[in-house]
Amino acid sequence: MTDLPEPPSRQQRQQQTRAALIEAAREVFAELGYHAANLERIARQAGFSKGAVYSNFSGKAALFLAVMDANLETVWSQPTGSADTPRPDTSSADVFETADEAELDQVIRGFALATLEFIAVAARDEELSAELQQRMQDVVDQYTQVAHDSQIVDDELTPQQLGTLLTALDQGSGLLVLGGTDLVDDDLLGVGMQRLLATKSTTDEAGPVKTAQHADQPAEAGADRTTNSHIQDRLLRALGNPTVQD
């Protein structure tokens, strides 16, 4: 007789419920926005009662932060050593699971718009503002690591400062796209980031010596990206930057 599998433990069931609620919340927030989304709709879409939400989260703001955390956790867990994987492999985690790329892009854009609503709410709430700042600092830290790993040679900007600028370029470009401008696309954003990561030249008696890509050498749009560039792609997608396209 084949042994039956052990039933999931209480903790495992709670983790499964939490994951289902987060996935449903991502879709509802993307569809309706932060303000219009309600916990009853999210619970129903996940297949639970509203009480299940309050058993796992203190409220809508906490659930929204949990979606952000799930997005970023997917990013941080991805390996960065292969240039053949410019996008996160989400087959083992249901984050960003969707039927096709068009639907995925719609979810990304919708969640980005919901995030703008949430930022406005958090700005008026000291506790939520601190929570949001912590997550944005995590993103800055990741970009700082990108700058550090790129072996930046710059006597003016530290990797921390470069990480902050990369984050600002990332979030600012996303805001422009959400506002309806078509001036920023993935190629232009990539060029801007590559310019920030380009090392400055050092000078000796014989003149300037290029230590890597020179700061005044424009990067070609659509050129092959480095391994660190893939981290940038993942961060942009996790935070819902609509400039990122496949």
Automatic annotation (TrEMBL):
Alphabetized InterPro entries for the sequence: Homeodomain-like_sf, HTH-type_TetR-like_transc_reg, HTH_TetR
Positions of the UniProt region annotated as Disordered: 202-228
UniProt entry tagged with the keyword DNA-binding: yes
Keywords assigned by UniProt, alphabetized: DNA-binding, Transcription, Transcription regulation
SUPFAM superfamilies (alphabetical): Homeodomain-like (SSF46689)
Keyword DNA-binding set for record: yes
Domain annotation HTH tetR-type: ranges: 15-75
DNA-binding segment(s): 38-57
Pfam families found in the cross-reference section: TetR_N
Name under which the protein is recorded: HTH tetR-type domain-containing protein
Source organism per UniProt: Yaniella flava
